């Protein structure tokens, strides 16, 4: 597959990332360009969990970068860039989502804004059984509690480390590990049950 | 890699190293996994299935092309340049004795003068633009439709979803949520006023051109399909052509009325996969390609090249996408390309080709321009 597949945006290594951020803070326009280009797709993908309005997301990302650029003199140099940008975007979007009030800000537990939709892309599948299994995995993912789902998403679909996930979700690293363990346990446990029922269904049918 | 011997399918699916090999393979990881599979042939089927599962399980994404990203970044950079505050030196160093300019009486007087000066400056600087705003005709939707006699028929899409609107001449308008169109009752003249975004499929009738007015931009068609984005608050109007040809020109164009009634397509003519951006404040039109050019109708293309000379490759792409590709024919005549480019969008196809011949491409005025120094001997 070409470089820009759905997962083609792995983050650059730490030191290059830090240099880029330092140059951004120093007010270099090429760094602005490179930074925004590098992180646009991961930020956009993350933002689609809060809104399905493409133009709104684009506006938010634009405003976020303009805001950072304007305040660059007062920003910290030693941040973990990707989680920092994602957390900032999340806060910004929550404040500006239609119907958001200062009270709903950040309290997404109540507002249920975090909306994942997993899908099964059939072009990768050439066997019926694989398709069924993928569908089962998808449905299992869908049944995960919201925070577990978010951890799974950040870990496996944004390829983030434990510390980075903690930063984005604003929780302790240990909590990340706990949530991840719970999620994987849930996925494995129900996977077996589902598999059994799948077999039973098959035997009944044939 | 011992632990993988015990793995069941779900363990593979949620193993980070495995996922990385499937989704972002490197030469090293690929070699390692291929070797492991060679040593454990009984695991081949299991791994193949886990692979398919990892690949197929995705998050439902909104489509976003690289072109869209490039455009968004450029736009943001432009905004950032505009905002760039003038350089303000930091606060003064330690002060021993107050110089005259730091006494309060001086400061007060100075600020009064400054305020008066700023006021005068703002007044003089803004006056021309205010005057021109007064004199510039207003081509907004409300202005255009409000003054028409007899009253126009208006369709407003309040459904929150896209809404198809069938016009009496057989043309179809797919109206985006929150957008509106107006036209003469019964659609006796093929004229539509648009506020917002809509996709048009216009029935062919060369004798009666179809005109769309959108924020000062006139789009004229004889029969084709295309998209117009003209929200009241947007500083620009965008027209993207899917099939056929359309002409666009500003409503302020001195020859606008002739261009509208002609049976010819005057003005800037757009062909499939081209788009125009109309800057409302500057009445400027700039042509480019749409974000993700689609194959235009015609015989199915396979885009599989085997030692094919580049000019032939480019000719194939030009035909398939209806785009112009500009390159030095002499320089590239002897460069062969072997590649399978069936499934990528056009710009990714170009990326692959350019990587092979160590070239770059640019979009200039709706054309693709290849910059190359020829292929290696």
UniProtKB/TrEMBL annotation, chain B:
Describe the location of the FecR protein domain by residue ranges. Answer: 160-246
InterPro entries from the UniProt entry: FecR, FecR_C, Ferrdict_sens_TM
Q: Which GO terms describe its molecular function?
A: sigma factor antagonist activity
Membrane-spanning ranges: 105-123
Q: Report the residue ranges that make up the Protein FecR C-terminal domain in this protein.
A: 302-369
| Pfam families linked to this entry | FecR, FecR_C
Alphabetic keyword roster: Membrane, Transmembrane, Transmembrane helix
Sorted alphabetically, which Gene3D superfamilies does this protein's record hold? 2.60.120.1440, 3.55.50.30
The name of this protein is FecR family protein
């Amino acid at each position: 597959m070409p470089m820009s597949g759905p997962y083609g945006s792995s983050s650059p290594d730490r030191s290059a990332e830090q240099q880029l951020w330092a140059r951004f803070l120093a007010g270099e326009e090429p760094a602005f360009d490179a930074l925004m280009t590098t992180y646009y797709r991961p930020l956009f993908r993350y933002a689609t969990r809060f809104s399905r309005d493409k133009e709104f997301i684009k506006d938010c990302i634009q405003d976020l970068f303009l805001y950072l650029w304007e305040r660059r003199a007062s920003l910290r140099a030693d941040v973990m860039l990707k989680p920092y940008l994602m957390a900032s975007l999340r806060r910004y979007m929550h404040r500006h989502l239609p119907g958001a009030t200062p009270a709903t800000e950040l309290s997404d537990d109540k507002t249920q804004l975090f909306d994942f939709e997993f899908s099964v892309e059939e072009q990768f599948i050439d066997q019926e059984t694989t398709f069924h299994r993928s569908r089962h995995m998808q449905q299992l993912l869908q049944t995960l509690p919201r925070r577990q789902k978010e951890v799974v998403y950040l870990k496996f679909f944004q390829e983030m480390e434990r510390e980075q996930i903690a930063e984005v979700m604003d929780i302790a690293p240990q909590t990340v590990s706990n949530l991840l363990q719970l999620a994987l346990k849930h996925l494995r446990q129900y996977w077996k049950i589902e598999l059994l029922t799948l077999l039973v269904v098959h035997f009944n049918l044939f | 890699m011992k632990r993988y011997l015990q793995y069941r399918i779900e363990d593979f699916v949620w193993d980070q190293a495995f996922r990385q090999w499937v989704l972002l393979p490197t030469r090293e990881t690929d070699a390692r996994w291929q070797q492991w599979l060679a040593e454990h042939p009984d695991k081949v089927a299991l791994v193949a299935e886990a692979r398919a599962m990892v690949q197929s399980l995705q998050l439902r994404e909104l489509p976003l092309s690289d072109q869209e990203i490039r455009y968004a970044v450029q736009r943001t950079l432009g905004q950032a340049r505009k905002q760039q505050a003038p350089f303000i030196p930091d606060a003064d160093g330690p002060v021993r004795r107050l110089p005259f300019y730091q006494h309060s009486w001086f400061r007060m007087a100075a600020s009064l003068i400054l305020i008066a000066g700023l006021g005068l400056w703002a007044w003089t600087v803004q006056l021309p633009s205010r005057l021109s705003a007064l004199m510039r005709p207003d081509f907004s939707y409300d202005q255009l439709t409000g003054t028409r006699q007899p009253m126009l028929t208006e369709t407003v899409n309040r459904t929150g979803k896209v809404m198809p609107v069938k016009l009496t001449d057989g043309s179809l308008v797919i109206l985006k949520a929150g957008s509106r169109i107006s036209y003469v009752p019964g659609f006796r003249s093929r004229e539509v006023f648009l506020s917002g975004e809509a996709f048009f499929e216009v029935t062919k009738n060369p004798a009666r051109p179809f005109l769309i007015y959108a924020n000062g931009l006139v789009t004229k068609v004889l029969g084709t399909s295309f998209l117009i984005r003209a929200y009241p608050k947007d500083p620009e109007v965008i027209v993207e052509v899917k099939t056929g040809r359309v002409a666009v020109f500003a409503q302020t164009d001195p020859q606008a009325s002739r261009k509208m009634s002609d049976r010819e397509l005057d003005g800037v003519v757009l062909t499939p996969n081209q788009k125009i951006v109309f800057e409302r404040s500057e009445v400027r039109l700039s042509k480019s390609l749409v974000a993700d050019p689609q194959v235009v109708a015609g015989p199915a293309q396979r885009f599989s090249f085997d030692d094919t000379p580049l000019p032939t490759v480019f000719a194939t792409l030009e035909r398939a996408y209806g785009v112009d590709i500009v390159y030095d024919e002499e320089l590239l005549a002897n460069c062969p390309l072997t590649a399978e480019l069936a499934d990528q969008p056009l710009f990714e196809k170009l990326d692959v080709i350019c990587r092979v011949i160590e070239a770059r491409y640019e979009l200039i005025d709706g054309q693709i321009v290849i910059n190359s120094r020829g292929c290696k001997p």
